[in-house]
Amino acid sequence: MKKAITLNSKNFQKEVLESEIPVLVDFWGSWCPPCKMVEQTIEELAGDLDGKVKVGKLNVDQYPVLRNQYSIIGLPTFILFKDGQMMKNEVGARSKKQLLKMLNEALGNII
Amino acid sequence: MHNAKCTCWNCPAINLAGKVDFRACGQAGAQFDKKADDSQETHIMAECKRRPDLGLFDPMSITFEECPEWQKTPYGYLLKNMRVMILGVDGYLGWTLALWLGRLGCQVSGVDNYNRRNWVKERGAHTVIPISRMSERLHAAKEVLGVNINFREIDIYEERDKLKEFIDEIKPEAIVHYGECPSAPFSMIDVEHAIDVQRNNVLGTLGLLFTMRDIVPESSLLKLGTMGEYGTPLTGRPLFEGMFPADAVLHWDNREWSLGGELTPRDPVSFYHVSKVQDTFNCYEASKYWWLRSYDIMQGVIFGVHTEEVSADPRLRTRLDIDEWFGTIINRFVAQAVLDIPLTLYGAGQQIRGFIALRDAMECMTRLLASPPEPGQYAVVNQISGVKSLRQLAYIVAKVGRKHFNLPVQIQRIENPRVEADIHPFEALYEKLPKQYGFEPKVDIEEEVRRMFELLMKPEIRARIEEKKHVIIPKTWWSGVKREAQRIELINLEKEIKEDEERAKIFMGKK
Question: Which CATH superfamily is domain B81-507 in?
Fold first, then answer.
């Protein structure tokens, strides 16, 4: 089963901005209970969307510069990137169904 | 090993002081933002208190399995000579855990003010397994097991300064907080007892949280909660592990929201349980404000007398209470069976509870110690190994007593002095301990009950039960009435009740 990619300041450019397929990034923090509850959903999505959308996760406290670059205020924040650009940005816990709806609306019924 | 891939981010030896900014979700941190950008650091740097020679490094770069300070044990990697402080070390759980961790190589320190001894004495009861003075217990621990426990007599509420000094001296890498009054009926005796329980539990814990913030913010707190905080919702809604999962969605007004990460409703059933709920909120908030790392351990009904350490010598035994205030149900049933007193079910006797044996609870605590929460993480686990109705538990005790000890064990229903549902559905989540922490229950309930009979039927212990048999039947009513609960009927449980099995469920994860 494909797993979500752990993003960091070294691999963000390559894995997200230069990715050939769209990337859903979960910006999270260890002190944020909703973020911890979304962890499993993110892992499941990484498997379900394998080959269509890449799924990554970034701990914003470990990488403050990236956090500032994307103006992350609320956690979790889900940002969908395509061709290096931000397409969609949602803040707060989401169910798997809600995340899939967000992706389908942005990318045109991929699932 | 369940914690092999944890990194220094989880480790209590990390020093993050000044490297992070405390803020709430939705709160912009302007100052911090500037600091981070100015420093040109793309990732957080930290220092190790145990290995200062490493200098500043990326705390995600070393895993427990790579770090020489973390060593393999049967319960996961454990920090070498881990400094663990147990609050309530003289109690049923505290003493057992102190010996257990000491044997595993932890440097154990302990705090107690003998409240439990005093409360039990005040009620005219006593521990039926005799325990000696703390000085003798400490001596025996050293002599028999080679375990040194650094003990200090401190009241964590009344003597916060002394507790602070002791924590500052030891710098514990984990604090296990058992220093609370664990009795619902004790809190319902009268206003003085309700206030005493809430003050000791709520304010004692609140003071501890401030002390941890000031002295050991990276240490983990393992705080004992109770499954009783959740109540027993009649809708049958599962009892999640403290918080809703992300796929739990609130539908209202043709709109929907994920409830993921929000605390689930609590429905405490006594002023004692209310104190535990208040603790939950205090720990939750302190974790958020100050990045403390805490486990709230929702323990089911505990029972049993055995671990390898407490059974190693009579002087090392842990206490066992059987009175209406401090005797947990299985322990009380066995004592009743030994004296040929019919086992007492309150009301319908169909209340369903999660339960766990003493030995298994110790293993769970060790696994949690080995896998500290992340900075700021308030995590909750349901610490149970099974769920059964109280009449099913009575049936098990009766069966073991009849089969192995030739006792004519009877079961009775008596009036229920509590205000609680006594016929209800119950579905507890029990996912984290087995899946995240690699725990599998080792204790067979019938086997442990058999061990309890063996111990409690020894003449000197049987005599101690006999001496206090008048404090077993409840006289503390939630209504405030003081009178002995009367028998409703003797019941005949010839076989385990199937309908209870259908109502008592455990959810171990999505299919």
Answer: NAD(P)-binding Rossmann-like Domain (3.40.50.720)
